[in-house]
Amino acid sequence: MIRARKPKLLPVVMTRDEVRLVLAQLSADKHLMASLMYGSGLRLMECLRLRVQDVDLSRNEIAVRNGKGGKDRVTMLPEALKPALKEQLRKARALHEADLAEGWGRVVLPGALDRKYPGAPAEWRWQWVFPQENRWTNSRTAEELLGHKDVSTTMIYTHVLNKGGQGVRSPFDTL
Question: What is the rounded distance in angstroms from the CA atom of residue 17 to the CA atom of residue 37?
């Protein structure tokens, strides 16, 4: 007995007028991101993860790293978006320089590149094209939370870890 196959449905594609209407509702960087996704075929996370070095304005290309299926690819950069993208890069660079001056301005690098190249997280080429609006810290370990450089020091305080992630409380909360 052979099972019946489900018919493949064609995807629903927005018309150009519908795309224009959607884009008209967006402003500033959101408009640019949506325009890039539409004009370059980027997925949302691919757009959000664009780094400065992935944009080649002279060749009108965008390199997508670790896209769907973990694959890299190169896609086109619409000529009409170049002025807005240049302006976005100018704003992102100014923000990056201000962040560096205040002791921030470092990004997470793929793999172990941050260990291989310790200064790379602060380099302009590794920064995000669309940086986050708010700063955040990546406190993943008890060593970082407690300010320890050596794991053996942290072992003294392992009772904190027995309570899980909710077990760490700020001293300020007990005032």
Answer: 16
